[in-house]
Design brief:
Length: 290
């Protein structure tokens, strides 16, 4: 496995260097090792000589696609390396007109599962991995096939709880939040030019640490991501307090599947849940006649 990853890393650097030789190339987004060599972080290579810093290994958790909305409107082609969950986010960004496919060079990287740095085992996020195998990749480092991974998720059974128990669980969980916004800043789906939580007129929320504000903040984010969350769990990984945001997002995903038969953001070309409306909707439409 190590030799295979090393070979893929070598090929990644070769492809990135060739791309950056193009006169229209702006940058290539991938991963580099952190100074302590324990994790990886996003890296923007802008010159061919910089590709030696690019890596590919079992610790490449960050999603390079999440940085594409910030480059919207830039002149030049943008190269980006994506693993399976990143590719799902990329498809959603293109579909939401956050980036134009014609301005991208997409390198697909087969991923056999990431490693949890705390346990050394396969990361729980990989338990439900699904690749968008039909994504329009420019090049791949091998077949983009979903790996057959069985990973146990350490999580309470929320569906088995009563309403009161779930309320108590989430109050305790969300009260850990220190409103650092790490979850919002790392999420590919938080690309609004102006977030409502940063608006001053009108001011929707304060930066006070009371529980009501914390619940409001996370509830708005979770519903905003309903039908768009790709299950990368970067929000939970970035949280310094260990808030189980992965459970919150996955719970909404499961309910979306149950209520609207919508499953798998970024897997197919099916329209996102919150961007569709059916005249056959059984609920009344209070905006007027259907």
């Amino acid at each position: 496995m190590r030799d295979q990853l090393k070979g893929m890393q070598t090929r990644l650097r070769e492809i990135a260097a060739a791309f950056l030789e193009r006169p229209d190339a702006l940058c290539f987004i991938g991963w580099e090792m952190t100074p302590d060599e324990k994790e990886t972080r996003p890296f923007f290579a802008r010159k061919p000589r910089q590709v030696k810093r690019l890596v590919w290994n079992e610790m490449c958790h960050p999603n390079p696609a999440s940085y594409l909305p910030g480059l919207r409107g830039s002149e030049g082609m943008i190269g980006v390396a994506v693993k399976g969950c990143d590719a799902r986010a990329l498809r959603e960004l293109i579909r939401a007109n956050q980036i134009e496919r014609k301005n991208l060079f997409v390198l697909g990287i087969p991923c056999a599962g990431l490693v949890d740095p705390n346990t050394g085992a396969i990361a729980s996020r990989c338990s439900e991995c699904q690749y968008p195998v039909d994504l329009d990749y420019d090049e791949t480092l091998g077949p983009m096939e979903t790996p057959d991974l069985t990973v146990e998720r350490s999580a309470p059974d929320l569906d088995a709880m009563s309403l009161q128990q779930r309320r108590a669980f989430w109050k305790q969980e969300l009260d850990k939040c220190i409103r650092c916004d790490a979850c919002r800043k790392i999420c590919y789906g938080c690309y609004c030019p102006e977030c409502i939580f940063e608006m001053s007129d009108p001011k929707w929320a304060t930066n006070r640490g009371d529980l009501a504000d914390k619940i409001f903040y996370h509830a708005v984010r979770a519903y905003h991501l309903a039908g768009r969350c790709v299950g990368c769990d970067e929000c939970a990984r970035a949280c310094p307090m260990g808030v189980r945001l992965d459970l919150l997002n996955r719970s909404l995903r499961d309910h979306a599947k149950e209520m609207f038969s919508f499953d798998g953001a970024g897997i197919t070309d099916e329209k996102p849940l919150l961007r569709t409306f059916s005249t056959e909707d059984p609920d009344p439409f209070f905006g007027g006649d259907k």
